[in-house]
């Protein structure tokens, strides 16, 4: 899997806020927020870790783990024209990486499924 380029990133605060008003899928390690942009461009990802989850070293380690999971596992599952924000919880630090990948692909699949009424 060497040579995979990372997906596009969300950098503007307005994009993060727009995602927070979209669809949510909770897992043990993070909450996935999705917003449909309405175009066919590649999906974009943003990461949020609050200071409540730990010190800077731990927050950066959690963020790096999720960035790598997105790089490896989100290509097939993410929908084009969507923005995703991953709000990490403390469990992202200790969760096995394979389980983190499974959680991510499952959350992306659940966010793409039609809403049940």
CATH class: Alpha Beta
The coarse overall form would be globular
Order of helices and strands: EHEEEHEHH
Average pLDDT, to the nearest integer? 88
Strand content: 15-25%
Number of domains: 1
Poorly predicted runs of 5 or more residues: none
User: How many angstroms separate the termini?
Assistant: 39 Å
Strand order of the largest sheet: 1-4-5-3-2
Number of helices: 4
Helix content: 40-55%
CATH-scheme architecture: 2-Layer Sandwich
CATH topology: Ribosomal Protein S5, domain 2
- Give the helix/strand class: alpha/beta
Would you report the number of β strands? 5
Largest sheet: 5 strands, mixed
Radius of gyration: 13 Å
GO biological process, one term: tRNA 5'-leader removal
InterPro entries: Ribosomal_Su5_D2-typ_SF, Ribsml_uS5_D2-typ_fold_subgr, RNase_P
GO cellular component, one term: ribonuclease P complex
EC number: 3.1.26.5
Structural features, described:
Keywords: Endonuclease, Hydrolase, Nuclease, RNA-binding, tRNA processing. GO terms for molecular function: 3'-tRNA processing endoribonuclease activity; ribonuclease P activity; tRNA binding. One of its GO terms (cellular component) is ribonuclease P complex. Strands 1-4-5-3-2 form a five-stranded mixed β-sheet, sandwiched between helices. It is globular and about 35 Å long. The mean pLDDT is 88. It is α/β, with parallel strands linked by helices and 117 residues long. It starts with 7 loop residues before the first strand and ends in a 5-residue tail after the last helix. It is 43% helix and 21% strand. It has helices spanning 13-20, 56-77, 91-94, 97-112, and strands at residues 8-9, 23-26, 30-36, 44-48, 82-88. The relative contact order is 0.24. The protein has four helices and five strands; from the N terminus they run βαβββαβαα. The protein has one domain (8-112): Ribosomal Protein S5, domain 2. Helix 2 (56-77) links the parallel strand 4 and strand 5 (82-88).
């Amino acid at each position: 899997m060497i040579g995979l380029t990372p997906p596009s990133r969300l950098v503007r605060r307005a994009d993060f806020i727009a995602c927070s008003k979209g669809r949510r899928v909770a897992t043990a390690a993070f909450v996935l927020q999705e917003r449909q942009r309405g175009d066919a461009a590649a999906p974009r990802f943003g990461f949020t870790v609050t200071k409540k989850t730990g010190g800077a070293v731990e927050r950066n380690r959690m963020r790096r783990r999720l960035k790598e999971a997105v790089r490896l596992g989100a290509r097939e599952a993410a929908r084009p024209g969507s923005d995703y924000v991953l709000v990490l919880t403390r469990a992202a630090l200790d969760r096995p990486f394979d389980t983190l990948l499974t959680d991510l692909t499952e959350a992306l699949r659940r966010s793409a499924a039609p809403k049940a009424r």
